[in-house]
Every structure is written in C-alpha cells, then in structure tokens.
C-alpha cells in the first residue's frame, strides 16, 4: 500500500489516506487501495468499527486530475462498471465502505473536496473540525460527482441541498456543513471524537449493529412493506444469535459483554 494505511486495535480499524504531500489527492492507485482495504476489512468478523481520516494537513483534496490524465487508458478502464456490483472503480472506492457491516466513521480536517467529500459520504457518520473546508468541487470544472456522490449526498442532505452544493461548487466550513446535515458532529479533534464514539459501540452487539446499518440503508430505497418484512426477519434472526444472549446476560449481571465474532449474514 502506497497511499492508504490501515491498523486495527481493539476491533477498531484506523484507515488513513496517506499522501500528505499532495493533500491526499486521489491517484488511480489510491482508488484501488481503498477498494482492497475495504474488501479486506469486510471479511474480518472480529472488526467492530472503521475510522477513515487523512494524514497531514487535509482529509482529501479530491482527484489528482493531472496524474490521472497521464494514463488515459486506465481512466477508461476505471469507468467500466463491474456488472455483478453495479459500480465502476471510481464508485466502488467509496461504495465499498458502505458494504462493510460495521459503523464507518469519517474524521475530517483541512480540505475535503470533490472525491474527498464522496469518501466522507460513504461513511455512516462524519466528524469534522469547524474550520474544515468542504466543496463538491466537480461543478467548478463543469462535471458532476460520480464516485457514488449523487446518491450519498442526496440521502444525507436532501435533494435541495444536494442540488445547491453540486450546482454551485461553493466552499463551506465544517460548521456550515453540520448545519446542512453533511457533518454529523463538529469536534476539535475529529479522530479522537470518532474513536471515542467507536469505543462506545463496543458494548453493543456486533450483529445488532450490522443489522441496523443494513436495514436503515435499505429503507432509503425500499417500500414500507418491504422494510417491515426485513425488520421482522432481522429480529427473529437476532433473537436466536449467541451475541444477543451474551449481551442479555451482561445487562442482567451488569458486566461487560465478551462478544463472539460477528455472525455471517
């Protein structure tokens, strides 16, 4: 890995965009590495949470267009979607984090532009400094966010705000991003705040967290009837799982639960 680093401690993966000399601008290799890391973490049933942040002065300044244009053939290849996933390489670099069945938290400081916004939107929660700078920068160049950002931005902020940010390409602060619903919480130290939140979830059943993420994400595009059916099936399954019983005993005895690895879906 050249541009993405990862370490796991106590079930929490700390993922870092690691190209600080370029403000963590996204090279095509970065996209491949993001996909590889996300898929590896998805297979780890002992994983409890993921925190994505950037090394150096910024979270991510967007796509490194100059570097990408030096290999136009790779760009063409990256645009071709995988039919079994429905995403191309640009989209999968973000959407792969939505597929991980644990809470994913973005910790944002400095610049969060273009593709950086779309990576942050792939997280379930976003912590940011009040003075961080956010922009759906693609509009400045006459294009649109195409790394799954249209879908994620609309889900998180609503259609009107999504259209405004996409059409204007305006730069807003982390504080303003929170007001618009783009940021979950403002913090002086986003990584510390995100880690504390992740640690607070360690006492919750990993199976229940996975079900909650899957059901809420699915409810955004499903009918009420289908969502109700998924609720029922998930609840019946959870009631029979070992981790649910472990948590019940821990609550009754006022002790800390020692969970087993997350059950297979």
TrEMBL record:
Checking CDD domains in the record gives: crotonase-like
Pfam families in the cross-refs: ECH_1
- By its UniProt entry, which SUPFAM superfamilies does this protein fall under? ClpP/crotonase
This protein's superkingdom? Bacteria
Family, according to the entry, reads as follows:
Belongs to the enoyl-CoA hydratase/isomerase family.
Put simply, this protein is called Crotonase/enoyl-CoA hydratase family protein
Q: Which organism is it from?
A: Actinoplanes flavus
């Amino acid at each position: 890995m050249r541009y993405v680093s990862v370490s796991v401690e106590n079930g929490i993966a700390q993922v870092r965009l690691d190209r600080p000399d370029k403000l963590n601008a996204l090279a095509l290799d970065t996209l491949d590495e993001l996909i590889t890391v996300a898929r590896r973490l998805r297979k780890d049933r002992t994983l409890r949470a993921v925190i994505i942040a950037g090394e150096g002065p910024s979270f991510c300044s967007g796509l490194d267009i100059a570097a990408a244009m030096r290999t136009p053939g790779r760009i063409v290849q990256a645009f071709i979607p995988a039919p079994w996933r429905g995403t191309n390489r640009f989209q999968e670099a973000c959407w792969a984090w939505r597929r991980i069945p644990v809470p994913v938290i973005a910790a944002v400081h400095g610049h969060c532009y273009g593709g950086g916004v779309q990576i942050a939107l792939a997280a379930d929660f976003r912590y940011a400094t009040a003075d961080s700078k956010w922009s759906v920068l693609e509009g400045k160049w006459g294009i649109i966010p195409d790394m799954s950002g249209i879908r994620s931005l609309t889900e998180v902020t609503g259609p009107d705000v999504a259209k405004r940010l996409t059409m204007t390409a305006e730069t807003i602060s982390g504080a303003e991003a929170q007001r618009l619903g783009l940021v979950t919480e403002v913090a002086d130290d986003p990584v510390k705040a995100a880690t504390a939140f992740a640690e607070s979830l360690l006492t919750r059943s990993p199976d229940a967290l996975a079900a909650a993420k899957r059901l809420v994400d699915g409810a955004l595009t499903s009918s009420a009837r289908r969502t109700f059916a998924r609720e029922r099936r998930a609840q019946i399954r959870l009631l029979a799982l070992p981790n649910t019983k472990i948590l019940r005993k821990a609550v009754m005895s006022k002790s800390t639960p020692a969970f087993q690895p997350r059950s297979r879906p």
